[in-house]
Give the backbone structure.
Amino acid sequence: MNLDVTYPRRNTTPCKVGPITMGGGHPVVVQSMITEETRNIDACVEQIIGLHEAGCEIVRVTTPTLGEAECLEAIRAKVTEKHGYVPLTADVHHQGSAIAVEAAKHVDEVRVNPGLFVFKRHGTRANDVGSQNAENAATPQRPNADSGLKAQGSRLNADSDDLKAQGSGLNADSDDLKAQGSGLNAPPPTDLRGESGEEIDRLRAELAYGQTEWAEEMAAIEDSFVPVIEACKKHGRALRVGVNHGSLSERMLVTYGDTPEGMVQSALEYLRLCEKHGYTNLNISAKASRVPIMLAANRLLVKRMDEIGMAYPLHLGVTEAGDGEYARIKSTAGIATLLSEGIGDTIRVSLAEDPINEIPVCYDILQALGLRKTKVEYIACPSCGRTKFHLPRVLNEVRDATKHLVGLDIAVMGCIVNGPGEMADADYGYVGAAGGKITLYRGKEPVKHGIPQENGVTELISLLKADKVWTDPPEGAAPRRELTALKTV
């Protein structure tokens, strides 16, 4: 069947992660992340192997400190020795320059979080502005100093000890604090997240960065980030710029708010630095725990990249989706929506479960969209009063007999009223007929009529054997999920 898709897949620059290539027209890549502590090397090795055997094509490992990054050497060696080569990603967050440089020696990809890579605790901006305003202010009158201190304490959500810790400019007695507060019109809260409306606009105006301050922060980021870029270039590694909605830097929150635009600008800063230093083996993610924000951020990211001539692959996911059925629906709502628009080159379904449970969900999303095929596609009607047999039972019987024939589409339809037309895309069809009989189809053509229901599955197998598409099922194990490059739309 020739499908004229409304949204062709976005044309992206290939990104090589070890032997895997994402983007550039390659099939959408499936990945996940282990949950074992990185210093527990043997446990990490077993979980990585288990995920790869289940069909995970890139496995991520957390590296919160330099010690964990150093463990990656042994993890890599043991996985390769026991199982074979598995593409690995190191997850780097706070103050991550030295960690990322070490990780790049051992893994195929390094992920950095722009909001945390050069980390400043939220609230420091309020102190910086307060100190600067205090230096510029004239010496104030000092009436009712205690009440001034209370007002500042409530606005900063901190007691006097916290105020002292937050900045040398606030390390003073109550009279000094009152003097410093003059001209600030009540200092802003330590964290802009959660504020809204006119209040957030006022706070952002008060805390706005000047050109010099902005340049100073960018210089600090570049100083920390360039060694990572050079390490990735030296070792031939990929790099993912992974933005999370929940961990935007304070500079982004002040400038753009808690918004998709802030997520996009956070990513673009790091992409521009990579290009400035001649490095382009990149992919990007813009994740959020709320589907509408995740959708908006990724669509905007594509738009902004198109405007400036970038075409890096996108890693899709709804972060912190939770567990159970709702988490799977939530992840599918975000990931599948973007994939259906042609956006996305690699995916991860984030479940608060054993990560091996994520892999079937990923493959089911891709199969439902026609992007990868890893199992038999069964087409079955929901059943109604016209159904000529117990459809749920028969569907399970057909599935049990044929589920190893990856690549086939098989329909099980209750009657001939809508069945033949609605199963027209199937390779084979099993359709109920009058008098307790069934009809078997090859594509749109009926090829066996009047088969007693009790013989239906046996006759279907005979037809598959006659057409030389049958293979005996593997003994003792389910078929391994297909990892080869398959159909893309």
Summary: The CA atoms of residues 39 and 68 lie 6 Å apart. The longest strand covers residues 445-452. Residues 137-190, 483-489 have pLDDT under 50 and may be disordered.
